DNA sequence: GTAGGGTTAG
């Protein structure tokens, strides 16, 4: 009569069912039913309990009403909870806090703020307490509105509430999520009683500080960890996962030099202390995901795979973390294999995060077709309006050669656009040599009130450079530095050098390098090098090579192109010398690889490759192409390199 | 018998 998934079956099995029946107190059985509705995520059971409460005349029972509101909010129906709330003649703090938190959990922030105001102003609503403030700080942290946060903080002080630990932790987190780490530290310093969560909030705040220069904090990360241990507090799963994310080279990981070493130590800590990587069928797999991520980002994706294989329970997050690990390491075949395996093993199948993770792998191996398949999958699952997925699709389509598909996604599916969406489409136009269009889009982005970041600036500058739009590039560079206070990065400067260089203004390019506001990196000298090679200025070319090899003595590409430079002027003695230096340093150049997709199959080629079954035909066609190019564009060096 | 915080695969 009872199926295994039927909630009544569970309650019938439990002893408490008989105990409740024996007591004949309908409110207790109702509460148990409501708890069950939350546990089994059953909206039907909640509504049935609601109806039962009405039949029994228990709708004004404060504990039952509170539990009803809570269950509706947990089941993503906060307005059903509000109906219960509105019908209450007497509303205590407890009940108000429940609805307040329910609005927050469901992202109805305005409703939260309105309710908070009503509570603050007294009258028919319960008075504010520590619970109210802990909820409000969390909501303001989600909103990222520090001014609202300061007002709520002020109110908590005015109310004379001595900060309890949970509210303090929530306040700390609110400040650091709003980018005010100093204020978060101040709260931490002034807290009368701290627990592990307080330290966790401190560490995660530390991890969020983007441009870490060591001066903002009186303590280094390891000092924090050590002080925590001095207070006899043991790391819990939260501490370990936050620290693991700092072992992956992300923001704030400045003083984690031996990142993987620390990561392994944390892995040992997890094992020694019996922390769960995956605690049950519906349990937390977060620690496992963090470990996979940490190992993959440190180039040890195989160790990540071992962690993955040993996880007792895997949900879509675990599968996605592993797929992402493979994709980031360039192991695209493995990523795709796992993606397929996930679909027949994991009941839920991939979600939007999985699709974003697999897209780079997909487009690398199977080109446009792979991207289209994922896009089709997303449409069928109604995920195609998700912002991150749209951004990834725009990037994939433009990199796979279809600017028109990229534009379609940008214009019709990407309904809410952020800086990344604009950046992806602008880079796409740049990549396809349509600089003018990239500049128009950049202006449109600014008109839409999106603040440019360094990525989009690099995108538009490189588009200008490739299309010879020097004036536009210069105006954009000056404007973002002056009007948007963007500090020029090495990449931005390299774009400027490239822009001057390509147009033949080599002296201007060199002057820019000499006067640029950051230390010129290999990218700037590399840009000057290509430009001087293009315009046949061997003096400038040698200068750029010297700087490049001085800066990157172990980069084999520099030696190869230097060797090619001398080979083009037939100075074989110098060629031999360069090759000898490479041998002495043990440098080898990994051959580049090209690939093309045709009729659903991918064909890849390296230099002098004869392994393809149609190799003879391909080389005949290649010879014809070289001859045709010689006729239309005669540059001896260029043709020489083509024939090598 | 009831409400709160710290991590979260991109």
UniProtKB/TrEMBL annotation:
It comes from the Eukaryota. InterPro entries: E_motif, PPR_At4g14850-like_plant, PPR_rpt, TPR-like_helical_dom_sf. Pfam families: E_motif, PPR. PPR repeats lie at residues 92-122, 164-198, 315-345, 418-452. GO terms for biological process: RNA modification. Keywords: Repeat. GO terms for molecular function: RNA binding. PANTHER family: PENTATRICOPEPTIDE REPEAT-CONTAINING PROTEIN. This is Pentatricopeptide repeat-containing protein. The lineage of its organism: Eukaryota, Viridiplantae, Streptophyta, Embryophyta, Tracheophyta.
């Amino acid at each position: 009569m009872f199926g295994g998934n039927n909630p009544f079956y569970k309650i019938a099995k439990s002893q408490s069912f008989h105990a409740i029946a024996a007591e004949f107190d309908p409110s207790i059985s109702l509460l148990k039913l409501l708890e069950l509705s939350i546990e089994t995520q059953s909206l039907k059971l909640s509504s049935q309990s609601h109806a039962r409460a009405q039949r029994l005349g228990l709708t004004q029972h404060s504990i039952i009403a509170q539990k009803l509101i809570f269950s509706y909010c947990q089941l993503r129906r906060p307005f059903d909870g509000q109906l219960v709330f509105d019908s209450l003649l007497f509303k205590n703090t407890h009940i108000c806090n429940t609805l307040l938190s329910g609005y927050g959990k469901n992202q109805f922030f305005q409703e939260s703020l309105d309710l908070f105001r009503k509570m603050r102003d007294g009258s028919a609503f319960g008075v504010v307490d520590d619970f109210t403030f802990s909820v409000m700080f969390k909501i303001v942290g989600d909103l990222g509105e520090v001014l609202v946060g300061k007002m709520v903080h002020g109110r908590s002080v005015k109310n004379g509430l001595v900060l309890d630990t949970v509210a303090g932790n929530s306040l700390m987190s609110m400040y650091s999520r709003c980018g005010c780490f100093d204020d978060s530290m101040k709260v931490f310093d002034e807290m009368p009683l701290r627990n592990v969560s307080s330290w966790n909030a401190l560490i995660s705040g530390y991890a969020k500080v983007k441009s870490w220069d060591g001066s903002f904090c009186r303590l280094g990360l390891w000092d924090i960890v050590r002080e925590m241990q001095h207070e006899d507090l043991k790391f819990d799963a939260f501490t370990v996962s936050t620290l693991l994310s700092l072992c992956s080279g992300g923001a704030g990981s400045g003083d984690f030099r031996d990142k993987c070493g620390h990561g392994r130590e944390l892995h040992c800590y997890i094992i020694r202390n019996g922390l769960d990587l995956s605690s049950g069928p519906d349990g937390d797999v977060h620690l496992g995901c963090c470990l996979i991520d940490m190992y993959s980002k440190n180039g040890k994706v195989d160790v990540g795979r071992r962690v993955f294989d040993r996880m007792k329970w895997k949900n879509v997050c675990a599968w996605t973390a592993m797929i992402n690990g493979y994709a980031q390491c360039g192991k695209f075949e493995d990523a795709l294999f796992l993606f397929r395996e996930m679909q027949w093993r994991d009941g839920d199948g991939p979600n939007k995060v999985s699709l974003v993770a697999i897209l780079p792998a997909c487009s690398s191996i199977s080109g446009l077709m792979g991207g289209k398949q994922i896009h089709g999958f997303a449409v069928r699952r109604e995920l195609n309006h998700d912002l991150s997925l749209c951004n990834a699709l725009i990037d994939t389509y433009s990199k796979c050669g279809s600017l028109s598909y990229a534009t379609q996604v940008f214009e019709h599916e990407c309904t809410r656009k952020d800086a990344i969406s604009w950046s992806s489409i602008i880079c796409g136009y740049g990549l396809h040599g349509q600089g003018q269009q990239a500049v128009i889009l950049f202006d449109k982005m600014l008109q839409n009130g999106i603040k440019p970041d360094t990525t989009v600036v690099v995108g538009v500058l490189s588009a200008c450079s490739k299309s010879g739009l020097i004036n536009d590039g210069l105006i954009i560079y000056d404007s973002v530095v002056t009007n948007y206070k963007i500090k020029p990065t090495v990449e931005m400067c390299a774009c400027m050098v490239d822009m001057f260089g390509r147009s033949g203004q080599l002296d201007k390019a060199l002057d820019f390098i000499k006067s640029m506001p950051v230390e010129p990196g290999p990218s700037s000298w590399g840009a000057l090098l290509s430009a001087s090679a293009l315009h046949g200025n061997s003096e400038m070319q040698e200068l750029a090579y010297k700087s490049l090899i001085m800066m990157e003595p172990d980069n084999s590409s520099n030696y190869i192109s230097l060797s090619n430079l001398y080979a083009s002027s037939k100075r074989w003695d110098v060629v031999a010398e360069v090759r000898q230096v490479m041998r002495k340093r043990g440098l080898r150049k990994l051959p580049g690889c090209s690939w093309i997709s045709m009729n659903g199959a991918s064909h890849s080629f390296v230099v002098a490759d004869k392994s393809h079954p149609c190799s003879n035909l391909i080389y005949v066609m290649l010879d014809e192409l070289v001859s045709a190019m010689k006729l239309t564009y005669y540059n001896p060096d260029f043709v020489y390199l083509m024939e090598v």
